[in-house]
Write a structure and sequence with these properties.
262 residues, 27% helix, alpha/beta, 22% strand, 4-stranded mixed sheet
Length: 262
């Protein structure tokens, strides 16, 4: 089932922790570990292994845990791990599902979360699996700060093309953010729901993507949220292989790897 973009953003960030050791087989057994801050609905500990989850925070209500209440964050987390199994995920909760409704943080808090993911949680990649239809100064400044710190920001382009093809979602539409759209299952064309345009940097399959549910069961889903998560996982894998790669080179490699010529 395709998930609609809500009026808040979810992110995933990555930072590397260098692990010293010998080359060869020992290096394979102890790969460089990448930290990924998932700013979303949380992460289900029933679905995602505890060894892949680091301490985070619930920004909607600091008294609540980072356990997922909706399922979106868990799905995103499972996709990231499918590409980068050694990644450390840091759940930073921006949305909580209560009484049939989504309760979410304000824009300024969201901007604070982006900065905290870097300054407090030591992350290097930001995955935004939703977006705002308006350009907000605090969010724009926060992703600018991420760029200054060498942090890659990956954002979903949005799922509203059929209803509103002209809309651009932020922060995906910012030049310093890697905007990801979706392709159909066979990769031959852009998915009907995916936003598109010269502001979208790359496209990757976003239909029938394997995901984990809150309970840990497996299912499939559609959406640019999942395409963005896949690219984030690929970025984590690139950083794992080369922790010294520059932000510009990492962006370039991801765009080239997923380059789709329509």
């Amino acid at each position: 089932m395709r998930r609609k973009i809500i009026v808040i953003m979810t992110f995933a960030f990555i930072s590397s922790i260098c692990i010293s050791g010998c080359r060869g087989e020992q290096e394979k057994e102890n790969p460089t570990q990448i930290r990924v801050a998932v700013i979303d609905t949380g992460i289900s500990t029933k679905a995602i292994p505890e060894e892949n989850i680091s301490e985070g925070m619930n920004y909607v209500d600091t008294e609540l845990s980072t356990e997922d209440t909706y399922g979106h964050g868990t799905a995103v987390a499972s996709i990231i791990l499918s590409e980068a199994p050694n990644a450390q995920l840091v759940p930073l909760v921006s949305n909580v599902y209560e009484d049939g409704k989504i309760k979410q943080v304000e824009n300024d808090i969201l901007a604070e979360m982006i900065k905290d993911a870097i300054d407090i949680y030591d992350c290097q990649i930001i995955n935004l699996s939703a977006g705002l239809i308006l350009d907000k100064d605090s969010v724009r400044n926060a992703v600018g700060y991420a760029e200054e710190q060498g942090v890659l920001v990956v954002a979903s382009a949005g799922n509203d093309y059929e209803e509103n093809g002209a809309v651009k979602y932020y922060p995906a539409a910012y030049e310093n953010v890697l905007a990801v759209g979706s392709l159909v299952e066979n990769g031959d064309e852009i998915a009907s729901f995916s936003q598109r345009g010269d502001w979208v940097d790359t496209y990757i399959v976003g239909e029938e993507i394997p995901i984990k549910t809150l309970s840990g069961n497996e299912t499939t889903g559609d959406g640019t949220s999942y395409s963005a998560a896949k690219v984030t996982g690929m970025a984590a894998k690139e950083l794992e292989a080369d922790p010294t790669i520059s932000l510009s080179k990492l962006r370039e490699k991801l765009i080239q790897k997923n380059d789709w010529k329509g």
